[in-house]
Amino acid sequence: GAGVSQSPRYKVTKRGQDVALRCDPISGHVSLYWYRQALGQGPEFLTYFNYEAQQDKSGLPNDRFSAERPEGSISTLTIQRTEQRDSAMYRCASSLLAGAAEQYFGPGTRLTVT
Amino acid sequence: QKEVEQDPGPLSVPEGAIVSLNCTYSNSAFQYFMWYRQYSRKGPELLMYTYSSGNKEDGRFTAQVDKSSKYISLFIRDSQPSDSATYLCAMSRDHDKVIFGPGTSLSVIP
Questions:
Q1: Which residues of B touch A105 (CB under 8 A)?
Q2: How far is CA A55 from the centre of its chain?
Q3: What is the distance between the alpha carbons of residues A64 and A71, in angstroms, rounded to a whole number?
Q4: Which residues contact A62 (CB under 8 A, 6 or more apart)?
Q5: Mutation target vs B (from A10, A23, A24, A37; most B CBs, 10 A cutoff)
Q6: Which of B43, B46, B88 is the closest to A42 by Cβ?
Q7: DSSP class per residue in A43-97
Q8: CB-side exposure of A8: number of CA atoms within 13 Å?
Q9: Under an 8 A CB cutoff, do A43 and B44 touch?
Q10: Smallest Cβ distance to A100: which of B43, B95, B100?
């Protein structure tokens, strides 16, 4: 079956613009996670959902970042008024069971803010 | 002090060698311990998953957890060039967020 997909794969935007990153998890997976990964570092937790409910958003850097998963499937991570420091790889993962440690990662979206 | 520490390497070994990768952590509440492998330009993929202390073996891979020392290890036997990747340890307290280490870059030389 299909794995986790993310779109776009690459996004270049100008400072101050808003961007929306999309994640389509594995069908039937309960939990969906967003991470940010800098080069040479491990994924840094941002937020996660069980079904449509946001369980933990403690990793979101500031109030310019938000995420939603309105129907418990596809999720969107939105960054408002982008800044150069937001440039990174944004990764999505999903797990079959709620809050399970066994997560399946998507290919990521490389965001570049110029 | 970061919650999860890992030697970034790079680690270079000859084909067939036994590789030992390690992580230390500070939060004694962690109960679930994972090892992920990440090839260049790809997302992490789960290799091993253990709960609490003890050993787990899967083929050429063995994961060890020592909660008393807050230390986890991954051993790779008969290493192959295809094992060349970054290895990330990860852990969580319960059914909540997962914290990753920074990763160790491994090269297995034919």
A1: 43-45
A2: 14
A3: 22
A4: none
A5: A37
A6: B88
A7: -EEEEEEETTEEEE-TT--STTEEEE-TTSS-EEEEE-S--GGG-EEEEEEEESS
A8: 9
A9: yes
A10: B95
Amino acid found at A40: G
pLDDT one-digit tens code per residue, B73-102: 999 999 999 999 999 999 998 878 899 999
> Strand, coil or helix: what is B55?
strand
Tally of helices (H runs) and strands (E runs) in chain A: 0, 11
Q: How many CB atoms are closer than 10 A to CB A71?
A: 9
Distance from CA of A17 to the nearest CA of B (A): 26
A35, A97, A102: residue with CB nearest B46: A102
Q: Please provide residue B81's backbone torsions phi and psi, each rounded to the nearest 5 degrees.
A: -55, -30
- Contact by Cβ (8 Å): A76, A67: yes
User: For the segment A69-78, what is each residue's pLDDT rounded down to a tens digit?
Assistant: 999 999 999 9
What is the Cα–Cα distance from A84 to A111, expressed in whole angstroms?
10
**Cβ-count burial B40-69 (b if 16+ within 10 Å, e if not):** eeebbebbbbbeeeeeeeeeebbbbbeeee
pLDDT of residue A97: 87
Torsion of CA A100, B55, B36, A30, to 10 degrees: -10
